[in-house]
Write a structure and sequence with these properties.
The complex is a heterodimer of chains A (208) and B (263). Chain A contains nine helices and two strands, in the order ααββααααααα. With 208 residues, chain A is mainly alpha-helical. In chain B, the strands form two sheets. Chain B has a two-stranded antiparallel sheet with strand order 1-2. Chain B is flat, with a radius of gyration of 23 Å. Classes of the chains: A mainly alpha (208), B mainly alpha (263).
Chain lengths: 208, 263
């Protein structure tokens, strides 16, 4: 869901850049020497996860996993996803340069939102309930991202309204896939290494 | 050996082109200035010049052309839809009718403008910044006063993308040897979900070892950034003048020619 350069209006680009810088700054303030390596390694993991393609009929979609990133990283997901989008733009040509702020905010803000909404759910004592919350975070993050992408387009001009509406419809299958994949991933992590969801807070406590 | 971020190292030219020898900081600043200028353009002549300059830089940079073009045209499906829908949703003079939908001249113009802008900027970025290499890009950003925490996070991410990608390939090989074939079904989705979960767990375990190893070596939270800064030489001077000339030309064409044609 990368928006390319040239489509959005000036105010939307500037607004997106300001929000992205603010969110990244908040996320960076939550990091310190102890949490930096784990954040960097997990950020790399989400980058690699976005290279995973799921076949859908004749075509395929790649994973985004911003909901899961929010669950694991919290606010740190903001700078982590900003880094990932910067690297994708510069080395793969995905998205663009002037839209980097908008794209970062559209992907990272939902991640942080899901952290607040679903974080309690995934540490539930029942692994099936935890997986359900993982699924909700996966679908919710894509839903919120899609709404933000549609909003970025709609705010840039009325001629984008039909495209904004269709963006939403096109992404319903993505939402379902992200929900199921996130649920499965949370289920596995819950079974194998439940402390992963506490990684950042725990390390902070250990350091203090 | 092919890397996720750096492509095929053996495919690079033996004698690096002059533009990719310019101090990375100048290249980053030039691309940002170029992108902001191009996004603000409206006149077709100016946009075509911008794309032409980008194409010339691409040829000069001697990047694998076919590969780069493929990267550039890999736009998300929905962006293609945005561009295709514009002619029919922008009000204005009718150019042609398709299945009872009226395409406006203004809409067609806007669609072409977006395509030209997106391609000109992406090409310029891939050639001038994409060739810096992720680690040197981090160091260049740091010397451009990007906060050190952000640069460190970027360097960590860059470092571990390759490692985690190898881990991912190992897991995929293990899945293949057990007869896993992806398809559109619940089994595939669940399996790939477990794959993502497993990747996260392995990454998490690795990060603990990384932190311990770094503590052992006296890590205090800051990397030693290589300071390659040398006084700006003739190359940087010429590059700065060239960039300014291109931007001035684009703005001149926009103002003179654009005012003439479209208003």
């Amino acid at each position: 869901m990368h928006i390319a350069d040239g489509a959005l209006s000036g105010p939307v680009l500037i607004g997106g850049a300001v929000l992205a810088v603010a969110g990244t700054a908040v996320g960076l303030r939550k990091l310190d020497m102890e949490t930096m390596p784990v954040t960097g390694v997990l950020s790399a993991t989400f980058f690699v996860a976005s290279l995973v393609h799921i076949p859908v009929g004749a075509t395929s979609v790649h994973l985004i996993m911003n909901g899961l990133a929010g669950l694991v990283l919290g606010w740190a997901a903001f700078p982590a996803l900003a880094v990932a989008l910067l690297l994708q733009a510069v080395f793969f040509g995905f998205g663009g340069l002037t839209v980097l702020g908008v794209n970062t905010f559209n992907i990272a803000a939902p991640a942080v939102l899901m952290h607040y909404l679903c974080r309690q759910g995934v540490v539930n004592a029942n692994p099936r309930v935890a997986a359900l919350w993982g699924g909700i975070s996966g679908a919710g993050a894509i839903l919120a991202t899609t709404v933000l992408v549609a909003l970025s387009l709609a705010l840039s001009g009325d001629q984008f309204l039909p495209a904004a509406r269709l963006t939403f419809l096109i992404h319903i299958p993505v939402m379902v896939i992200e929900a199921l994949v996130s649920a499965a991933a949370v289920f596995l992590v819950w079974r194998v290494r439940p402390e992963l969801f506490d990684s950042l807070t725990q390390l902070k406590r250990g350091a203090a | 050996m092919s890397y996720v971020l750096e492509g095929d190292a053996t495919a690079r030219p033996a004698t690096p082109p002059a533009l990719t020898q310019v101090d990375p900081r100048y290249r980053v600043v030039a691309v940002v200035a170029f992108a902001i200028t191009v996004v603000a353009l409206h006149d077709f002549a100016a946009l075509l010049i911008a794309l032409f300059v980008s194409a010339a830089v691409l040829l000069h940079g001697r990047l694998p052309v076919a590969n780069t073009i493929r990267q550039v045209v890999t736009v998300d499906m929905f962006m293609i839809f945005v561009i295709l829908s514009l002619p029919f949703t922008t009000p204005g003079e009718t150019a042609f009718t398709l299945f009872g939908l009226e395409a406006s001249k203004e809409g067609i113009g806007d669609a072409f403008r977006i395509a030209l802008k997106a391609n000109a900027i992406v090409l310029m970025m891939l050639v001038l910044v994409g060739t810096i290499g992720p680690v040197r890009l981090g160091h260049a950003l740091s010397r451009l006063k990007v906060p050190p925490m952000f640069v460190h996070l970027m360097l960590f991410t860059v470092r571990y993308i390759e490692v985690l990608n190898e881990e991912y390939q190992r897991l995929r090989t293990a899945m293949r040897t057990r007869g896993f074939r992806p398809g559109t079904n619940m089994h595939t989705i669940r399996t790939l979900g477990y794959l993502v979960g497993m990747l996260l767990i392995r990454a998490f375990d690795r990060s603990e070892r990384v932190l311990q190893a770094m503590r052992c070596r006296g890590f205090t939270g800051a990397f030693h950034l290589i300071d390659e800064s040398r006084p700006a030489g003739l190359r940087e001077g010429l590059f700065a003048i060239g960039t300014a000339a291109v931007l001035a030309a684009l703005i001149y064409v926009e103002v003179r020619h654009g005012a003439f044609v479209s208003r």
